[in-house]
Structure formats: structure tokens, C-alpha cells
TrEMBL record:
UniProt keyword annotation of Oxidoreductase present: yes
Start and end residues of each Enoyl reductase (ER) domain: 10-304
Protein name, per record: NADP-dependent oxidoreductase
SUPFAM superfamilies with a match to the protein in the record: GroES-like, NAD(P)-binding Rossmann-fold domains
PANTHER family: ZINC-TYPE ALCOHOL DEHYDROGENASE-LIKE PROTEIN C16A3.02C (PTHR44013)
Database matches in InterPro entries: ADH-like_N (IPR013154), Chloroplast_QOR (IPR052733), ER (IPR020843), GroES-like_sf (IPR011032), NAD(P)-bd_dom_sf (IPR036291)
């Protein structure tokens, strides 16, 4: 199969299009013919070795945890799926090696759900990791009907999905973003506020009584600003900075969960959730996808079109 691989830790310039053996399929896994692969910041962080203290890597390393594709074959105890099924997955394993930037990926059934019919292959590939991060974050803080929530980096991959999920659950959403993305946030159902000095005052102007929950999807000053505008300073969650726990808040590292993935697919098919694709690039141009992700200026998702 064709795949993008690293032969040692490195950056975009070290990614190579290569031929590798087809992956082995375990008893509780399926072989997926990849249509598209989502790109996430964790991909290039793993590739650079930033997660080496907590995640073993084996080379050649094929990056990528997000996939949308078609089941080609199944292991003997993978009864949940059959050849021809269209699936999405957050295919994170306990080590880094056989990722989704490839024509084929072996995916444990615990990482998969059926692809939402309402989304294209590219959109579907951008949903799993970012969607699960948003979904599990909102659920961790118990967001629901009538809450006012603050979402930092609301135009990004995770933030744009969090806005839509919170709105679908009946919450009012205030989202931070650069001014060029404010109309985009309004379309998603958020009330936009600009980044920068005076952010807390701008949020208070929209929610004088404070917000019920706040979500840090970008880092920087987001946690401190959130604590200034929260009714309860403990209801702040970060997926970027684990130090939030020392301040009484919550840290989340997204987990594969087929039930959560299925819930996201249901929201998409109900017309309550879509995935904005900022850019799709061919497999051979994965380096450009990493550079776009590293820029931090994308609106929605970057994906790799494998088909």
C-alpha cells in the first residue's frame, strides 16, 4: 500500500510517500480502505517526538488517527461490521506506528462507528478526533439546556464542533475568534467575540451574570480569562494545558468511544452538526497539510484526500 511515513522523528519536510506492507488485521479489528484522513495537531506533535514520554513510537511511523473509509475485510470476531460498510474512526492505539495517512488501516472495532450519510468523505474524516474532543468536553462539564458557555478558538476544528454540539443541546454559546471568522461563528450558532486585550470585558458585556462553563481549545491566557468570567471558577476545561487541574478545573485527553462517535454521526444526519473543511490535499502533499495545521490559522479542518 501507499502511505506517508517518517523514518525518524521529524517535521513536514521529513514525511515521505512510500510503499509499505498491508497492515495485519487482528481478531477484533477490520481493514479499512481509506477515503480520507483527518489532520490534527497531535499528528505532527507525535511525529516530532513531543509525546515520546508517554507514547512509544515505532518506525517507519505512519501518522494519523482520524479516518473515513470502507471496510474491506474483517477479523473473525469483528461482528459489528461487514465488508462494504462505510465507517469513521478515531484509530488511536497504545503506540504510534500504523496510522491513517495510508491507503489501508487496520482499525479495532472499539475505534469505529458508521459514517454519517449527511457528510462527504472529507467532512467525515475531519469529525472523529475533533468531534469526540468537543463532545466529551461538553459532557464532562454537564453542559445542557439554558447554559451559557464560552468556547475559546471557536472557529477551529474542535471549537467549531463544540459550538454546534452545545447549541444542539440547548446552550447559548459565546465563541472567541479573530474578526475574519465572526460571520462563520454566527452561522454555526455562536455569538462571536474578538481575541486580545479586554476579552474578559467583552465576554461580560454579552453575559453580565457570568458564563456557566468555559472550554480552552487553544492555550495561552484562555484559562485565566475563563476564570474571570465564570460563575463557578471550577467549571473550566482545557484540552491543552493539564495545569488547569491545579487551578481547580478539568483536563481532558480524548478517548476512542464508538457510542460517542455514533452520537456525533446522529447529530450530523439530523442536520445539527457539520464539519467545515478548510483545505483538502492529496496523500502525496501531507507535508503541506502539516504546515497548514501548524499555522494555527485554519477555519475548520484540514484533511488528506486518499481516494
Amino acid at each position: 500500500m501507499k502511505a506517508i511515513a517518517l523514518n525518524e522523528y521529524g517535521g513536514p519536510d521529513d514525511l515521505t510517500l512510500t510503499e509499505l506492507p498491508d497492515p495485519k488485521v487482528g481478531p477484533d479489528a477490520v481493514l479499512v480502505r481509506v477515503k480520507a484522513a483527518g489532520v490534527n495537531p497531535v499528528d505532527w506533535k507525535v511525529g516530532a517526538g513531543y509525546l515520546d514520554p508517554v507514547l512509544d513510537a515505532h518506525f517507519p511511523l505512519v501518522p494519523g488517527w482520524d479516518v473515513a473509509g470502507v471496510v474491506e475485510s474483517t477479523g473473525p470476531d469483528a461482528k459489528e461490521f461487514a465488508p462494504g460498510d462505510e465507517v469513521i474512526g478515531y484509530v488511536r492505539k497504545d503506540w504510534a506506528q500504523n496510522g491513517t495517512y495510508a491507503e489501508l488501516v487496520a482499525a479495532p472495532v472499539r475505534t469505529l462507528a458508521r459514517k454519517p450519510a449527511a457528510l462527504s468523505w472529507q467532512q467525515a474524516a475531519g469529525l472523529p478526533l475533533a468531534g469526540l474532543t468537543a463532545y466529551q468536553s461538553l459532557r464532562r462539564l454537564g453542559v445542557g439546556e439554558g447554559d451559557t458557555v464560552l468556547v475559546h478558538a471557536a472557529a477551529g476544528g474542535v471549537g467549531s464542533l463544540a459550538v454546534q454540539i452545545a447549541a444542539a443541546w440547548g446552550a447559548r454559546v459565546i465563541g472567541t475568534a479573530s474578526e475574519r471568522n465572526h460571520d462563520f461563528l454566527r452561522e454555526l450558532g455562536a455569538e462571536p467575540v474578538a481575541y486580545g486585550e479586554g476579552l474578559a470585558d467583552r465576554v461580560r458585556g454579552l453575559a453580565p451574570g457570568g458564563v456557566d462553563a468555559a472550554f480552552d481549545f487553544v492555550g495561552g491566557e484562555s484559562i485565566e480569562v475563563s476564570r474571570q468570567v465564570l460563575k463557578d471558577s471550577s467549571r473550566v476545561l482545557s484540552v491543552v494545558d493539564a495545569e488547569v487541574m491545579a487551578k481547580g478545573g478539568h483536563y481532558l485527553f480524548v478517548r476512542p468511544d464508538p457510542a460517542d462517535l455514533a452520537a456525533l454521526a446522529d447529530l450530523a444526519d439530523a442536520g445539527k452538526l457539520t464539519v467545515g473543511v478548510d483545505r483538502a490535499v492529496p496523500l502525496a502533499e501531507a507535508a503541506e497539510a502539516w504546515r497548514l495545521s501548524q499555522s494555527g490559522r485554519t477555519r475548520g479542518k484540514v484533511v488528506i484526500d486518499v481516494s
